[in-house]
Design a protein that fits this description.
The complex is a heterodimer of chains A (225) and B (434). Chain A has 225 residues and is α/β, with parallel strands linked by helices. Chain A is built from eight helices and 14 strands. In chain A, helix 2 runs parallel beside helix 3 and helix 6 packs across helix 8. Chain B has 434 residues and is an alpha+beta fold. The chains are: A alpha/beta (225), B alpha+beta (434).
């Protein structure tokens, strides 16, 4: 999976690059409108991460250009502006998703992979991890090829874990992914714990391995070891 | 937010007299004074003139009598009601003296009246006479009466002319002033349009206008600067926050970190998150202030309330709270849909956060009100301050204290009302929709 990060802020660019680059993604970066447009014309990307506020041009114009040059490329807008108008305009112009700064890198990772699944694999993707198979579109989950029944939130949690496999996820990040901004910081510990406990129970009951490791003091990690 | 200066409001209530009425009252007081002095002067001059005239008459009579006596008319024939002649024994030193204020029975009115009397001693044709002549003389009372009558009428005419005149003149010369007052009334600091100042050729008003123009422009400029600062500050801080948060996220991937260190990272992440939300909330408040959500669009408020409350059902359930909603269908409001969403979200979030174990939340929407009731501990902040920024009823939890301030702001810009009550362990926030 090849992505282009268009972001004028050097440190933020390198953060995204460092975080995503150590997974199964190939990351390239562009720091301004000019550089980004050259790369979009010359190379093909699966997803472009686009900051719409660039020093030498509006990212929304770049969005139009990408749509023209590479109609199959997914686009995720990142912006410090939380304004609904920008979000709507971005989505109307064909962006696939929108993240408001500051965002969690694990959330960005999950969203990028979701875009990739929808666009490149036409949604016919099976997420696999060890003995678990997840059909993201019809919400079917198999452990050792045996279907198990998960609640909507448990399903979302499992997908979030698999897309962020081998990464440390703190409880607040998980809570915000599942319930958005409305969730209280203090409450999130209990909520996340309850859901993880149930998910773990269902997987283990179907004969699967317990992949959810508790990182004491921080959160969880979905990993095989 | 621009609030009217309190002192001004009190002043206008206790002493509400129009400028022109005040001036008129003072003019009348002065006029009364001037007319009073004028009356006294008129009286004195009139009295003096009448006395002189009477004395002149008396002396003319005297000369005629003396001439008649010289022409050898018998003195008896010269006597009248008003003329008495007394022949004297011997020659006298000639003299004449006038006596005022003699009371004599008036021959026609048969009343004692004030007369003026001339007593003269004359030697005519070797005879000596004492001649007494009286003449009717205006009484002081009569003079005062006449003067008062004249002045009273003059004063009446003067007052009527002054009243009518000032009414018409004030309408003319105070017109630019009145227009200025209306312009100030209609001016709004937030609308960012200059004060519309009427034209005038009155020097004082020109100075006032110029001052007001400068002052309002300064206020406008300062307000804009402050607004832009808040907006920029809360906006610009998001990128560095995103960077710091990202660094921590990369750092926490490090497998060699110990539990204590991971806890530190998480704590730092939590603070960054809070700072970021603070910026977003302040930015939202500024945007609402800037009328960025002004709309003429009608929205299905019932739909929004149902959607938002259903999002909270799971959270409430997880917290062990009972949530009960009564939503009347087809409540339409003219409001920005995003603000409506934020309004309902903040109310429910508030009810969720400030609740007690095994408590409940009741949401009720009808055509008039949106009410959110919840169980909870008594508020520790005075109730009127609850809607102010950074006021929290309980400082121990992780909230920002901006939720209700945002509710208040949304309610204000949409011309709605909001009320908070706490009774027997139940909080109620009620939004009056119309």
């Amino acid at each position: 999976m090849k992505i282009l990060i268009v972001e004028d802020e050097k440190e933020l660019r390198s953060n995204i690059h460092a975080y995503l680059g150590n997974g199964e993604m190939v990351c390239e970066t562009a720091s301004n409108f000019r550089e980004a447009s050259m790369k979009v014309i010359s190379f093909v990307y699966d997803v472009v991460v686009l900051d719409i506020m660039l020093p030498d041009g509006n990212g929304l114009n770049l969005l139009g250009m990408i749509k023209e040059e590479q109609p199959d490329t997914g686009i995720l807008i990142i912006s410090a502006k939380n304004a609904l108008d920008d979000r709507l305009e971005g989505l109307n112009l064909g962006a696939d998703d929108y993240l408001t700064k500051p965002f969690h890198l694990s959330e960005l990772n999950a969203r990028l992979k979701a875009i990739y699944r929808r666009r490149k694999l036409q949604g016919k993707s099976l997420l696999e991890f060890g003995d678990i198979k997840v059909n993201v579109d019809n919400h079917e989950v198999f452990v050792n090829d045996q279907p198990i029944v998960l609640t909507l939130k448990e399903h979302e949690l499992l997908v979030f874990f698999i897309t962020n496999k081998n990464r440390v996820l703190n409880k607040q990040v998980i809570a915000e992914h599942l319930w958005g901004d409305n969730v209280d910081y203090l409450d999130s510990f209990d909520f996340v714990y309850q859901h993880i406990k149930n998910l773990r129970k269902k997987i283990v009951a179907a004969g699967g391995q317990n992949y959810v490791q508790t990182i004491y003091g921080l959160g969880y990690k979905f990993s095989k070891q | 937010m621009f609030r009217p200066f309190m002192g001004w409001a009190i002043n206008s209530a206790s002493n509400n007299m129009r400028l022109i009425s005040k001036a008129l009252l003072w003019y009348l007081v002065l006029a009364t004074f001037v007319f009073g002095i004028g009356g006294i002067i008129t009286f004195l001059l009139l009295k003096d003139a009448l006395e002189q005239e009477t004395d002149y008459e008396l002396n003319r009579h005297l000369r005629q009598i003396v001439q008649s006596l010289e022409a050898e008319h018998p003195w008896q024939a010269l006597e009248r009601n008003t003329i008495k002649i007394f022949p004297l024994e011997e020659a006298v030193a000639e003299e004449s003296r006038v006596y005022g204020d003699t009371l004599v029975m008036h021959p026609r009115t048969e009343r004692f009246e004030n007369f003026r009397k001339l007593i003269a001693l004359r030697n005519v044709n070797e005879m000596a006479y004492r001649i007494e002549i009286i003449d009717i003389y205006f009484e002081q009372d009569d003079i005062i009466d006449v003067v008062a009558q004249i002045l009273w009428r003059l004063f009446l005419v003067f007052s009527i002319v002054l009243l009518l005149g000032s009414f018409f003149i004030s309408r003319r010369i105070f017109k630019p002033f009145k227009e200025l007052l209306i312009a100030i009334d209609n001016w709004n600091l937030k609308s960012n349009s200059p004060l519309k100042i009427p034209n005038t050729n009155t020097k004082e008003l020109q100075r006032l206008n110029e001052f007001l123009w400068r002052m309002t422009n300064k206020a406008r400029h300062d307000y804009q600067t402050l607004k832009e600062f808040t907006e920029n500050a809360s906006h610009e801080m998001q990128t560095p926050l995103a960077i710091a948060q990202g660094k921590l996220e990369i750092l926490q991937e490090d497998a060699s970190l110990k539990e204590d260190q991971l806890k530190l990272i998480q704590s730092a992440q939590y603070s960054l998150r809070k700072l970021s939300k603070l910026g977003q909330s302040l930015s939202l408040l500024t945007k609402i202030d800037n009328q960025e959500f002004a709309t003429t669009e009608n929205i299905d408020f019932s739909g929004i309330v149902s959607r938002v409350s259903s999002q909270f059902e799971e959270l409430a359930e997880m917290k062990g709270l009972k949530i009960d909603t009564q939503i009347a269908p087809d409540v339409d409001l003219q409001m920005d849909p995003m603000l409506a969403d934020i309004l309902v979200t903040n109310l429910l979030k508030n009810a969720l956060q400030h609740n007690i174990p095994n408590g409940w939340i009741q949401l009720n929407l009808d055509d008039e009100n949106l009410s959110v009731k919840n169980t909870g501990a008594p508020p520790q902040t005075p109730i009127p301050e609850l809607f102010e920024r950074f006021k929290k009823s309980n400082s121990s939890n992780g909230t920002l204290g901006l939720g209700l301030a945002i509710v208040k702001k949304i309610v204000d810009v949409n011309q709605m009302g909001v009320n908070y009550e706490f009774e027997e362990g139940v909080h109620e926030v009620k939004v009056m929709l119309k």
